[in-house]
Amino acid sequence: MIAGWRAAAQAGNIEVRHASIQEDGDVLKRIDEMEFVDTPLHIAAAAGHTDFVMEMMNLKPSFAKKLNQRGFSSLHLALHNGHKEMVLRLLEMEKDLVRVKGKEGYTPLHYVIKEGNIDLLAKFLEDCPKCIFDVTIQNQTAFHTAVENNRVDALHTLCRMLEKTYYCEDVVNWKDRDGNTALHRAAANNHPQMLKLLLECKADKNVTNQAGLTALDITLAKVNNGESINILRVCSFPGVSTLGKLWQAIVNILTKGSAELFQDMDSISSEDRNALLVILGLLLTATYQAILSPPGGVWRGEGSDSPVWQVGAPTSTLITRNLVGKSVLGPIEFLVFYVTIWAVFIGAFFLTLGLLKPFPRDFRVLYRYY
User: Fold this and answer.
1) What confidence tens digit (pLDDT) does each residue in 126-138 have?
2) How many angstroms from the chain centroid is the CA of residue 370?
3) What pLDDT is attached to residue 240?
4) Is residue 199 a contact partner of residue 187, using CB atoms and an 8 Å limit?
5) TM spans, by residue (predicted)?
6) Are 169 and 202 in contact (CB under 8 A)?
7) N or C: which end of the chain has fewer CB within 10 A?
8) Alpha-carbon span 42 to 220, nearest angstrom
9) Which of 92, 16, 12 is nearest to 51 (CA)?
10) What's the CA gap between 41 and 49, in Å, rounded?
11) Is 141 left (phi over 0), alpha (psi -120 to 50) or beta?
């Protein structure tokens, strides 16, 4: 029966598949119990039968994360055989398939970098930003893969899409099993253009590997590396003040928090979404009204130069013209109140935007990276 399924997958024959299920309802379960196997999904993905693959994803989605005997998932096979449409359809059904590790720990992200498929690289990073954290068995990131395979276009895309994220500096300075960053690898390959891209993407040229060498040390040990040496020696960034560093740290914390908050926004049920929108609507209304009418109101009086007596407190208060129209609260109390209310208002506003569905996709991508 399993052989019949494989033949149906190879031919993309949906009718034969349904007939097999009618004869043996547990056939897919038995295939799924095998640790490493070419499932019908793998076979159909390699053969390019998109409809068969989509139907199989509906029947047995667990097949998508299984590896065959050669260490490949169905998405790996679709990429290897150039079935771009199928890759996009699989990605629509489950974005985390980009993070499935195959042979030697290579994910589909590493594969598209090796092949120089820039369109799919950008798509993977856009749909599954966390895939950038996946490393191979040699502890190499996507940056290492781009440098080692001499993919300048892929490295440029990685830098462009990650340079303004809070985790860019951590990823670009990630060390492999030998302690080498992507900058070390670019220096060893004598690739000036890659060195420039990495340095512009917050690569630290002072990081040392397990041998105690910086990227400049590696470059100096080789011949005909004049341009690379100049880039590493000349490159410097303007000093940042302590206040500037503190502000950057605050921005990074807020960015990280917002990314964690918004990443699972689409998975919220309709009931919870509606309840949250009601609560946020009340918060927006209350805070907006509080901004317009602070506690205690404002000093009242006429617009003349003569003093005005404010009556209603335990003792009458003399108000001069320069106090009329200003908040009754003291300057410090008013500042604390105003900043707090504004923070709540802005937070509720952006949470409301995130909860609205459907929501402009480009804005979510922009918000995520900026």
Assistant:
1) 999 999 999 999 9
2) 11
3) 46
4) no
5) 275-292, 335-356
6) yes
7) C
8) 48
9) 12
10) 9
11) beta
